[in-house]
Amino acid sequence: MIVFSFLDGTKVSMSIVLAVLDPTIQTFIYVVAIAGPLSIAVLIFLLKKIEKNNPERIRWR
Known about the structure:
Order of helices and strands: EEHH
Oligomer: single chain
C-alpha cells in the first residue's frame, strides 16, 4: 500500500486518494501503471533481440 505523508503530519493512503477521483481517471491511472513498465520491458527485450541478431545496429552506451 502506498502512503503519502504531508508536512502537517497527515497520512493518506493511495486508495483514499484514488477514491475521490472520477472513475474514468482511476481507470486511466491503473492502465498507465500497468502498461508503462510493461512497454518499457518489451522495448528492452526487442532491442536485445535485435542486438543479438545484428550487433552493429544497436550500441548500448
